[in-house]
Amino acid sequence: MKFTISQLAKVGLLATAAFLYDNFKSLFSILKAKLELYFRPQLPQSLTDKFGKWAVITGGSDGIGKGYAKELARRGINVVIISHMKEELIATAKEIENLYGTEAKWIVADFSKGKEVYQHIKHELRDIPVGILVNNVGCASYPDELGNRSEDFLWSIINVNVGAVTVMSRLIIPQMKKHGKGAIVNIASGFELMPTPLMAVYGATKRYVRSLSLAMERELSEYNITVQCVTPVLVVTKIVQFSDFLSQSYFFGTSVEAYTRSLVLTLGKTQETTGYWTHAIIYFIGKLTPEWLRIRIIHAIARYIKKGYMKNRIEKKSYRQINIQSYSVFFALIIDIQYLYIKRIIKYP
């Protein structure tokens, strides 16, 4: 059977429509959720009605995790925040209770330790009917080659970025099935879009989170359990202070408050989201770029960030290890690629 020009055009049109839908659905869901606040102020169900009165947020003492916990509390949901930083947990829990009048519990757990922490978490959550689980905790470090990483660091990043999202989901799913409702939010990263030289393990773990999330969504939909994968681009928090460049990404970056407020609006409305409208546009532009070029650009940017980090270390600036939710500089610079040429960061052979 021979294809005519007309038939090929129809196939091309369908392929284009499918591509646009797949890549713009996040933006549409975000805009729809925002517009509903004005055109449908009295929505039929609150988050508590839809999912339950309690939420668990890993990595909830800082950054996106803290912002998400506060946003849920603002909507009347009690929260349990989990982190390895006890003082920050206590302060965050008190802040939430004082601001919103909801209950805020905390659990100290270092996910980098692996299997040993989950029995303690399970015990602490035994009497709490968890309706929302936010798998937010993440771990990374400054860019460097895989061969230069210590084994301890590699196990830490695998335990935190892969182990936590997997085991915490397994821990909570049975009770969600029993209650016949629930939501699991898995925070991935824009880094899942391509292999990331000098951040190889981090990027691979975030790709894992996306794959796991989409599979879980299919498995759990029949039990009325929502699974959402979140792929932020750049959220500006104090944890990116190791890089002056990242810290100053004011145009492309988003504040935690603005980001989490937008992100929570999408809960229960889409299985994948970037969380914020500018992130959706940047993500779309990134996907239009050939993968070989994405890899080349992110490698050059990672080298640039590593150079800045090492310079800061030489100048004896103090930086703690990065415990992050998600960030990506690739998307910011791919749009402003002229800046890269001017600074001669990218050099083609």
TrEMBL record:
<comment type="similarity">
    <text>Belongs to the short-chain dehydrogenases/reductases (SDR) family. 17-beta-HSD 3 subfamily.</text>
</comment>
<protein>
    <submittedName>
        <fullName>Uncharacterized protein</fullName>
    </submittedName>
</protein>
<dbReference type="InterPro" id="IPR036291">
    <property type="entry name" value="NAD(P)-bd_dom_sf"/>
</dbReference>
<dbReference type="InterPro" id="IPR002347">
    <property type="entry name" value="SDR_fam"/>
</dbReference>
<dbReference type="GO" id="GO:0005739">
    <property type="term" value="C:mitochondrion"/>
</dbReference>
<keyword id="KW-0521">NADP</keyword>
<dbReference type="InterPro" id="IPR052149">
    <property type="entry name" value="17-beta-HSD3-like"/>
</dbReference>
<keyword id="KW-0496">Mitochondrion</keyword>
<dbReference type="Pfam" id="PF00106">
    <property type="entry name" value="adh_short"/>
</dbReference>
